[in-house]
Amino acid sequence: MKIDILTTFPDMFEAVLSASIIKRASDAGLVSASAHDLRGWTEDRHQTTDDYPYGGGVGMVMKPEPFFAAVDEIRCDAAAECNEEIILLSPQGEPFTQTMARELARKDHLIFLCGHYEGVDERVRVNLATRQVSIGDYVLTGGELPAMVVIDAVVRLLPGALGDETSPESESFEDGLLEYPQYTRPSDFRGMKIPDVLLSGHHEEIRRWRRKESLRRTQRLRPDLLNEADLSEEDRELLLKIEEEDALGQ
User: Fold this and answer.
1) How many structural domains compose the chain?
2) Which 3 state secondary structure label does DSSP give 126?
Protein backbone atom coordinates (compact mmCIF):
# COMPACT_ATOMS: atom_id res chain seq x y z
CA MET A 1 0.00 0.00 0.00
CA LYS A 2 1.09 3.54 -0.74
CA ILE A 3 -0.06 6.38 1.53
CA ASP A 4 0.34 10.07 0.78
CA ILE A 5 -0.66 12.83 3.19
CA LEU A 6 -1.16 16.41 2.05
CA THR A 7 -0.77 18.85 4.91
CA THR A 8 0.71 22.22 5.86
CA PHE A 9 2.22 20.55 8.93
CA PRO A 10 4.17 17.53 7.64
CA ASP A 11 6.44 17.49 10.70
CA MET A 12 3.50 16.31 12.81
CA PHE A 13 3.70 12.92 11.09
CA GLU A 14 7.39 12.18 11.62
CA ALA A 15 7.01 10.32 14.92
CA VAL A 16 3.81 8.53 13.90
CA LEU A 17 5.20 7.16 10.64
CA SER A 18 8.53 6.10 12.16
CA ALA A 19 7.38 4.13 15.18
CA SER A 20 5.49 1.01 16.29
CA ILE A 21 3.36 -0.99 13.84
CA ILE A 22 3.58 1.55 11.01
CA LYS A 23 7.38 1.46 11.10
CA ARG A 24 7.37 -2.35 11.23
CA ALA A 25 5.03 -2.50 8.24
CA SER A 26 7.18 0.01 6.38
CA ASP A 27 10.39 -1.89 7.12
CA ALA A 28 8.72 -5.08 5.88
CA GLY A 29 7.77 -3.40 2.61
CA LEU A 30 4.03 -3.62 3.32
CA VAL A 31 3.41 0.13 3.20
CA SER A 32 5.09 3.29 2.02
CA ALA A 33 3.81 6.40 3.80
CA SER A 34 4.86 9.99 3.17
CA ALA A 35 3.66 13.37 4.45
CA HIS A 36 3.94 16.16 1.88
CA ASP A 37 4.02 19.89 2.56
CA LEU A 38 1.09 21.37 0.66
CA ARG A 39 3.08 24.58 0.24
CA GLY A 40 5.15 22.77 -2.38
CA TRP A 41 2.22 23.09 -4.79
CA THR A 42 1.57 26.81 -4.33
CA GLU A 43 2.44 29.32 -7.05
CA ASP A 44 3.07 32.57 -5.16
CA ARG A 45 6.27 33.57 -3.38
CA HIS A 46 4.57 33.50 0.01
CA GLN A 47 3.43 29.88 -0.55
CA THR A 48 -0.13 30.76 0.39
CA THR A 49 -2.42 27.83 1.13
CA ASP A 50 -5.38 29.74 2.63
CA ASP A 51 -7.42 32.86 2.00
CA TYR A 52 -10.39 34.84 3.33
CA PRO A 53 -13.82 33.29 2.72
CA TYR A 54 -16.08 34.75 0.06
CA GLY A 55 -19.08 36.41 1.65
CA GLY A 56 -17.15 37.34 4.76
CA GLY A 57 -16.85 35.60 8.08
CA VAL A 58 -14.18 34.73 10.59
CA GLY A 59 -11.17 32.54 9.94
CA MET A 60 -9.41 31.40 6.79
CA VAL A 61 -10.28 28.75 4.21
CA MET A 62 -7.82 26.37 2.54
CA LYS A 63 -7.41 27.20 -1.16
CA PRO A 64 -8.32 24.60 -3.81
CA GLU A 65 -5.33 25.04 -6.14
CA PRO A 66 -2.62 23.36 -4.01
CA PHE A 67 -4.81 20.35 -3.25
CA PHE A 68 -5.75 19.79 -6.88
CA ALA A 69 -2.18 20.29 -8.11
CA ALA A 70 -0.75 17.93 -5.51
CA VAL A 71 -3.27 15.18 -6.20
CA ASP A 72 -2.73 15.52 -9.95
CA GLU A 73 0.96 14.84 -9.35
CA ILE A 74 0.85 12.01 -6.82
CA ARG A 75 -2.28 10.08 -7.76
CA CYS A 76 -2.13 6.86 -9.77
CA ASP A 77 -1.58 7.07 -13.49
CA ALA A 78 -4.91 6.99 -15.30
CA ALA A 79 -3.72 4.06 -17.41
CA ALA A 80 -2.62 2.02 -14.41
CA GLU A 81 -4.90 -0.32 -12.51
CA CYS A 82 -4.89 1.26 -9.08
CA ASN A 83 -7.46 0.94 -6.33
CA GLU A 84 -7.25 4.46 -4.97
CA GLU A 85 -9.11 6.56 -2.40
CA ILE A 86 -8.76 10.31 -1.85
CA ILE A 87 -9.86 11.01 1.71
CA LEU A 88 -10.83 14.38 3.11
CA LEU A 89 -10.77 14.42 6.91
CA SER A 90 -13.79 16.42 8.02
CA PRO A 91 -16.25 16.55 10.97
CA GLN A 92 -18.94 16.41 8.29
CA GLY A 93 -17.66 13.11 6.94
CA GLU A 94 -18.76 9.51 7.27
CA PRO A 95 -18.06 8.16 10.79
CA PHE A 96 -14.88 6.10 10.85
CA THR A 97 -15.43 2.49 11.90
CA GLN A 98 -13.54 -0.78 11.93
CA THR A 99 -15.58 -1.82 8.90
CA MET A 100 -14.33 1.21 7.01
CA ALA A 101 -10.77 0.47 8.15
CA ARG A 102 -11.04 -2.98 6.59
CA GLU A 103 -12.36 -1.46 3.36
CA LEU A 104 -9.49 1.01 3.18
CA ALA A 105 -6.95 -1.72 3.98
CA ARG A 106 -7.85 -3.32 0.64
CA LYS A 107 -6.87 -0.20 -1.31
CA ASP A 108 -3.59 0.19 -3.20
CA HIS A 109 -3.23 3.92 -2.64
CA LEU A 110 -4.63 6.29 -0.02
CA ILE A 111 -4.33 10.06 -0.32
CA PHE A 112 -5.27 12.05 2.79
CA LEU A 113 -6.31 15.70 2.46
CA CYS A 114 -5.76 17.54 5.74
CA GLY A 115 -7.70 20.76 6.04
CA HIS A 116 -7.02 23.42 8.62
CA TYR A 117 -8.43 26.66 9.98
CA GLU A 118 -12.13 26.98 8.98
CA GLY A 119 -11.93 24.09 6.52
CA VAL A 120 -11.30 23.65 2.80
CA ASP A 121 -12.79 25.21 -0.31
CA GLU A 122 -16.00 23.33 -1.13
CA ARG A 123 -14.64 22.41 -4.57
CA VAL A 124 -12.06 20.18 -2.87
CA ARG A 125 -14.82 18.41 -0.99
CA VAL A 126 -17.13 17.98 -4.00
CA ASN A 127 -14.79 17.59 -6.95
CA LEU A 128 -11.57 16.09 -5.57
CA ALA A 129 -12.20 13.91 -2.53
CA THR A 130 -13.67 10.49 -3.20
CA ARG A 131 -14.53 9.99 0.47
CA GLN A 132 -15.03 12.19 3.52
CA VAL A 133 -14.20 10.72 6.91
CA SER A 134 -14.85 11.87 10.48
CA ILE A 135 -13.35 10.29 13.61
CA GLY A 136 -16.00 11.76 15.89
CA ASP A 137 -18.56 14.45 16.56
CA TYR A 138 -16.15 17.15 17.65
CA VAL A 139 -13.97 19.75 15.97
CA LEU A 140 -10.16 19.64 15.84
CA THR A 141 -7.73 22.27 14.62
CA GLY A 142 -6.98 20.34 11.46
CA GLY A 143 -7.15 17.00 9.67
CA GLU A 144 -3.72 15.84 10.78
CA LEU A 145 -4.72 13.99 13.96
CA PRO A 146 -7.70 12.26 12.29
CA ALA A 147 -5.43 11.18 9.44
CA MET A 148 -3.03 9.61 11.95
CA VAL A 149 -5.89 7.71 13.58
CA VAL A 150 -7.17 6.35 10.26
CA ILE A 151 -3.69 5.41 9.02
CA ASP A 152 -2.87 3.53 12.22
CA ALA A 153 -6.15 1.60 12.13
CA VAL A 154 -5.69 0.71 8.46
CA VAL A 155 -2.02 -0.24 8.42
CA ARG A 156 -2.36 -2.70 11.31
CA LEU A 157 -4.90 -4.62 9.19
CA LEU A 158 -2.45 -5.21 6.35
CA PRO A 159 -1.50 -8.90 6.21
CA GLY A 160 1.75 -9.37 8.12
CA ALA A 161 1.74 -5.94 9.77
CA LEU A 162 1.16 -7.30 13.27
CA GLY A 163 3.49 -10.24 12.86
CA ASP A 164 2.75 -13.82 13.91
CA GLU A 165 2.36 -13.07 17.60
CA THR A 166 -0.88 -11.13 17.34
CA SER A 167 -3.95 -11.02 15.15
CA PRO A 168 -6.57 -8.31 14.57
CA GLU A 169 -9.32 -10.92 14.34
CA SER A 170 -9.91 -11.09 18.10
CA GLU A 171 -9.83 -7.36 18.76
CA SER A 172 -12.69 -5.05 19.61
CA PHE A 173 -15.22 -4.42 16.82
CA GLU A 174 -13.85 -7.15 14.54
CA ASP A 175 -16.95 -9.26 15.21
CA GLY A 176 -19.15 -6.37 16.24
CA LEU A 177 -18.37 -6.74 19.95
CA LEU A 178 -15.90 -5.32 22.43
CA GLU A 179 -12.87 -7.44 23.26
CA TYR A 180 -12.79 -9.67 26.34
CA PRO A 181 -10.60 -8.74 29.37
CA GLN A 182 -6.89 -9.50 29.12
CA TYR A 183 -4.48 -10.45 31.94
CA THR A 184 -0.78 -11.18 32.28
CA ARG A 185 1.68 -12.04 35.08
CA PRO A 186 1.54 -11.96 38.05
CA SER A 187 -1.64 -13.96 38.55
CA ASP A 188 -2.09 -12.36 41.99
CA PHE A 189 -1.27 -8.65 42.23
CA ARG A 190 -2.02 -6.93 45.54
CA GLY A 191 -4.74 -9.43 46.19
CA MET A 192 -6.30 -8.92 42.77
CA LYS A 193 -6.42 -12.37 41.21
CA ILE A 194 -7.10 -13.31 37.61
CA PRO A 195 -10.07 -15.62 36.85
CA ASP A 196 -9.28 -19.24 37.67
CA VAL A 197 -10.41 -20.42 34.23
CA LEU A 198 -7.40 -18.72 32.63
CA LEU A 199 -5.09 -20.96 34.69
CA SER A 200 -7.04 -24.14 33.95
CA GLY A 201 -5.39 -24.98 30.64
CA HIS A 202 -8.82 -25.99 29.33
CA HIS A 203 -8.94 -24.31 25.92
CA GLU A 204 -12.65 -24.74 25.32
CA GLU A 205 -13.57 -23.33 28.73
CA ILE A 206 -11.23 -20.40 28.15
CA ARG A 207 -12.75 -19.75 24.73
CA ARG A 208 -16.25 -19.83 26.15
CA TRP A 209 -15.27 -17.56 29.07
CA ARG A 210 -13.72 -15.03 26.70
CA ARG A 211 -16.78 -14.98 24.49
CA LYS A 212 -19.03 -14.57 27.50
CA GLU A 213 -16.98 -11.70 28.89
CA SER A 214 -16.89 -10.05 25.47
CA LEU A 215 -20.68 -10.15 25.42
CA ARG A 216 -20.88 -8.94 29.01
CA ARG A 217 -18.56 -5.98 28.36
CA THR A 218 -20.42 -5.04 25.19
CA GLN A 219 -23.76 -5.23 26.94
CA ARG A 220 -22.58 -2.96 29.73
CA LEU A 221 -20.49 -0.44 27.79
CA ARG A 222 -21.87 -0.47 24.24
CA PRO A 223 -25.33 -2.10 24.24
CA ASP A 224 -26.01 -0.47 20.88
CA LEU A 225 -23.50 -2.84 19.28
CA LEU A 226 -25.50 -5.90 20.33
CA ASN A 227 -28.44 -4.74 18.23
CA GLU A 228 -26.38 -5.08 15.05
CA ALA A 229 -24.10 -7.98 16.01
CA ASP A 230 -24.52 -11.34 14.28
CA LEU A 231 -25.12 -13.42 17.41
CA SER A 232 -24.94 -17.21 17.40
CA GLU A 233 -27.15 -19.53 19.41
CA GLU A 234 -24.29 -19.92 21.88
CA ASP A 235 -24.07 -16.14 22.20
CA ARG A 236 -27.75 -15.93 23.09
CA GLU A 237 -27.34 -18.68 25.69
CA LEU A 238 -24.39 -16.81 27.19
CA LEU A 239 -26.37 -13.57 27.33
CA LEU A 240 -29.10 -15.36 29.27
CA LYS A 241 -26.45 -16.68 31.63
CA ILE A 242 -25.10 -13.15 32.08
CA GLU A 243 -28.57 -11.88 32.92
CA GLU A 244 -28.98 -14.64 35.51
CA GLU A 245 -25.60 -13.81 37.07
CA ASP A 246 -26.38 -10.09 37.14
CA ALA A 247 -29.71 -10.80 38.81
CA LEU A 248 -27.86 -12.78 41.51
CA GLY A 249 -25.23 -10.05 41.83
CA GLN A 250 -22.38 -12.27 40.67
Assistant:
1) 2
2) helix
